[in-house]
Amino acid sequence: MRRHVFATAFDIAVDVFRHALHVHRASILPTAEDRARALELLWKRGDSADPRAIEAIRAANPKDEAPAFLRGPRGSTLSVALGEGDAEASAELLRDTYWNDRFSPDSLVRAAKGSNAWVGAHDEQRRLVGAARAVTDGAKHAWIYDVIVEPSWRASGLGQALMRLLLDHPAVRGAAFVHLGTRDAQLFYRKLGFVESNEIERPYASTTMTLARAPRGRGNEAP
Q1: Which of 6, 78, 209, 217 has the lowest CB atom count within 10 Å?
Q2: Contact status, residue 51 vs residue 80, Cβ threshold 8 Å
Q3: CA 27, CA 31: separation in Å to the nearest integer?
Q4: Per-residue model confidence as pLDDT tens digits over 11-38
Q5: Cα separations in angstroms, 160 against 22, 49, 121, 153
């Protein structure tokens, strides 16, 4: 009986997202315990629509306690799938970061929306206070970009919570190698298991190469 209930929860949750019937379909799960179990199962299953389905169930039941994988520092609410409304706020958090010195706010918005995984955190006033994203092929490699925490939330554990959530995201968790670049946060990332690339032994020599070109923004695309 319980197995049937939870299998049905999968179908309901995905249907909630795909058809945008957030409140009516999500409320079919009768208890907070059932909904919490459905969220855990959706996260474990990890189909492409599941992160959005998780957010749909949570939006329809805002008083439910967050499941273990979504618990962050006190006063924060973690999200496994940021939405359109967070894009500009994310770009604002990233403004003046050293690694985005050549990118416009529009480029940052489009980069966030084009990511395979984009997680974040809001405070009690629903302000975006942290975000991180990844681009991945799901099997061989994933690249992490734009890990950012609002200054007043730094040293709270929020950055670590966001990174753990991103590394376990369905789009990222299957990647054999997860890459990122940093100027001064090596210790932070080492605590999460990262090492410098030259510490990984390979049976052949390899040179990383980059094609650098001007970003293409809206209205100035190449013909």
Answers
A1: 209
A2: yes
A3: 9
A4: 555 454 444 334 445 445 679 999 999 9
A5: 30, 25, 12, 12
